[in-house]
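Final paragraph of the annual report: two paired records, presented back to back.
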Amino acid sequence: MSSARDEARYRLAADNRRARYDFEIGQTYEAGIMLTGTEIKSLRGGRSTIGDSYAAEKNGEVWLYNAYIPEYLQANQFNHETRRPRKLLLHKKEIGRLMVAVQREGMTIVPLKIYFNEKGRAKVELALARGKKLHDKRETEKARDWNREKSRIMRARG
């Protein structure tokens, strides 16, 4: 899937593995995320989850909702709220493209992963996605099982 060069380029903080099962992934975008100091420290610990999160537009800006970043244990009274909305940093043109896709085409903005780039900045990989129906999910599962079985057979044959 990803090469060693890609893994060396960034360090993963949170991954939304379920998104590829629940949604058909379209175009992807890289966005910055506005975080407080304790959120960055906690993200580096790697216990955050974005499985139930989504991004939406509010007052011409894109916000990330329902992303869980646990409290940083060493920051007693200056800690952050774990599921607060967080502003995403995108160019105006990108925001415009995302909003058109959401409003006209009925797509959803789904975060795929939160990672640290080579400069150490936290980034979010967003994707325009369309929800899968139940039969699409079954089809995906069937194809995955068949590919697994096919590779098992090929290994056994030599």
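The closing record of the year follows.
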Amino acid sequence: MQWCAKSSPSHRREVAVSSRVNAAGDTRERIRTAALALFAEHGVAATSLREVARSAGVAPGLVGHYFGSKDGLQEAVEDWVVGLFSETLGAVPLEGTVTEVVAARDSAVNGMFARNPHAVDYLRRVVVTPGAGDARLVRKILAEQVAQTEHLRDHGIGASQAPVTEQAVTVLVRQLGAWLLQPALGRLWALSGAQGPEPQVHVTLR
């Protein structure tokens, strides 16, 4: 004799709601991912919501449904990029010497950028050739880096006589500099007709 348990109506409703929530999250993420790639390639001003919807494979109305407006979509992309920094740095243990901790954090950021090329391209665009509204992302990243610097100082790491904002900017330039400049060097190298391997950019601040 076999016994088959039947789910209750309330359980079926919970499953249905959960499925809709997951589907909504997947759609929202797909739109945001498509927007990041297009913003990185063309810039925010040159990207329409219809193009984002087409790239994401969704109806144009869904972009407005999930993000409200183009500015809302841009802010969601910005928050995701800033979240990459926060999650990446937050996962690095504050153990070892100051030199070891700093090296581990820089290495983690490099790895994060290598895995997220569209985030790098978008950052390069807003920092090197900013458009209207692009300063917001830079301010958010700076605010995150200031918070990270204060966190390190609270743990006795990276103590400095410099104001925390100046120290945060120095760290950010060190972590971002090569990623921002390497493509420019690559173009110069290619245009020159040089035959040797392309030099690699290393940023040292004094």
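The chain has eight helices and no strands. This concludes the annual technical report; the extension proposal builds directly on these records.
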